[in-house]
Amino acid sequence: MTQPTSGVEHSGEEHDSEGHSVAAWTAVGIILLGALVMALAVVFPSALWFVVGAVVVVLGAITGKVLAMAGYGGKKSTYEATHRAELPGRGQVDSGTQ
Hints:
- The protein is mostly helical.
- 55% of the residues lie in helices and 0% in strands.
- It is built from three helices and no strands.
């Protein structure tokens, strides 16, 4: 029996990083800590601690983005790098002449 496909060709696509970066792990760790604080705030009713946990979650997402922008994120895949020029508006400038 064959599996249905979405019509998108993925042969040769590489998944080198898959989120294994300092930025990703830091963000996930901080977000999990915030989620734990929010969960405890539900078990032991406290609106203040729930808000503190929510703020920690938002700070975790911001920290992950800042670290990724600072160069600690995953590397671009070779698939994306080789096919980026094929996207509209990318690559060589068309002079309009044939």
